[in-house]
Amino acid sequence: MNFQNDRYTLRLAEPRDDGGIREIFESGSFSGGLSVQYLRPEPLDSFAADGEEPRMLVIFDNEEKRIVAVGGAVVQSCFIGGEPQRCAYLTGLKIHPDHQKHIFFIARAYGFLGVQLSDCGCCYTTILDDNEPVIRMMEKKRKSMPEYRYIGHYTTYCFGGAKHILPVEVGNTEGFDKLMKTYFSGFALAPVNSGLRGFGEKQFYSLRDESGEITACCFAGDQRATKQYRLCSYGGIYRLLSHLPTALSGYPPFPREGEIISHGVISYLYIKDNDPALCRKFLRTVASMREDSLLLWGATDDHPLTDAMKSVKAVKYGSRLYEVVFDGREPRLSGRIGMEAALL
After folding, report:
1. Which tens digits make up the pLDDT trace of 27-48?
2. Is the pTM of this model over 0.70?
3. Alpha carbon distance 324, 321 (integer Å)
4. What is d(CA 118, CA 97) in angstroms, rounded to the nearest whole number?
């Protein structure tokens, strides 16, 4: 599909586009107090790892003979109303900095994407709090654009740990399948498939009572083979904090500028009765058992574990969660949300 006097072509991404897509990721960053580059070493494989099927689009500049924008969605099975449904996470449109003021057919691109996602019962996305221009643009309703229906605020927690406090087991997944059916299935957007590669090279951690029942559990994985974060620079209060021995006070150590962050990601976190003290001790123990410099976990602000996370010393960053409703479709998201930060 060609636009602007045939200069640009919009099409589905192909394996040969990997290098051009990687260049776009390396050309930008999300900023604020922490300026971070979000990288995908092998982009199309990385998108594929996050679900059952990536549906990525690229914009090709026919004059310069290169990829200048990438966007699309990853299709995955998630729980909606307690049942598995085909859902699509929109990855957001990334445009190379030297083309951001030259592409004027975004609405038509969304129309093309909507057709590609016609078999998905629910589409959703997130936008970082600091990205105010995009938030204003997407929240303004337009006839030619899908509706960005605000669902809630999503917080990602970055934390560490240095004390092995609880007798946590590694690798024993007995009882987890039951939790998937009785607990995690009650959260909209909780992934049905816990074996997705996007969760990283992971291990299962669990705490059990005398009868063997799980009282706390999670997976923790190293996903740097598919996703990486490079700390570009510090600003504001973070510039001061980055020089302090934060690990001594229970916070994760701050990486050096230019460094790829040694991060692990928590998924399928369960704490019996949402007990704040148990949550803090369990996560600190899991963190102490791993080599990652910090761990990530995220949830909407009304998640039942949000209050428990207040007892965990963490650096936080926020996003806005939207259901993306294309023309003629009905909104589907309601109730508790179980979207995993590992797959964003």
Report:
1. 876 666 778 888 999 999 999 9
2. yes
3. 10
4. 31
Length of the chain: 344
pLDDT tens for each residue of 61-86: 999 999 999 999 999 999 999 999 99
- 326 in Cβ contact with 144 (< 8 Å): no
| CA-to-CA separations, 254 to 31, 38, 155, 320, in angstroms, rounded | 16, 17, 19, 25
d(CA 160, CA 328): 45
Distance, CA of 244 to CA of 252 (rounded, Å): 11
Strands (E), the chain: 2-3, 8-12, 34-39, 53-61, 66-80, 83-90, 94-95, 122-128, 147-159, 169-170, 201-208, 214-222, 228-234, 263-271, 294-300, 314-325
Alpha-carbon distances, residue 157 vs 17, 86, 281 (angstroms): 33, 28, 15
